[in-house]
Amino acid sequence: MKQLVQAYWDRWQIAVQHKEVKDTLGAGQAQVRVQASVERQPAFVVACSAALLLASWEAFGTQRAGDYEPLPKWRRNATRPSCQDRMGLLRREIVQPSKVLEEFALETNHERLVRKAAA
């Protein structure tokens, strides 16, 4: 019985991840003109999602902690960070000052990245 419940739980987590990749990151919704790009876009988005997921697990663990933005009232009991949570954290880290990016003199901030992402 325990294996059956674990298999169901694992399958549910996979389904949630697929939904996030499709809805949040736009797998299969590429606005490209070249046929090869149309075929490659879903695999590229899935690879990017997997890289983001693994990096967040390594840096912050598998549970939602204080590093992420506060949750809305309707989602207060969530323990798993969503794709939106990971993307928000990535955007925030991108705009933090970095020695590596100083030579490029980039002008950006968190609000600007969020507006661009929402467009």
Give your account of this protein's structure:
By secondary structure, the chain is an all-alpha fold. It has one domain (2-118). 59% of the residues lie in helices and 0% in strands. It is built from four helices and no strands. The chain has helices at 2-23, 35-60, 83-95, 110-118. The longest helix is centred in the middle third of the chain and has 26 residues, at 35-60. The protein is globular.
Give the overall form. globular
Radius of gyration: 17 Å
Give the domain tally.
1
Task: Classify the secondary structure makeup into a structural class.
Answer: mainly alpha
Rounded average pLDDT: 81
What fraction of the residues are assigned to beta strands by DSSP?
under 5%
- Cα(first) to Cα(last) distance is 47 Å
Uncertain ranges = none
* Number of helices, counting only DSSP H or I runs of 4 residues or more: 4
Question: What order do the SSEs take from the amino end to the carboxyl end, as H and E?
Answer: HHHH
Question: Could you give the count of β-strands?
Answer: 0
Brief overview:
The chain is mostly helical and 119 residues long. Helices cover 59% and strands 0% of the residues. The longest helix has 26 residues, at 35-60.
List keywords for this structure.
4 helices; mainly alpha; 119 residues; 59% helix; globular
Protein topology:
Blueprint: H1 2-23, H2 35-60, H3 83-95, H4 110-118
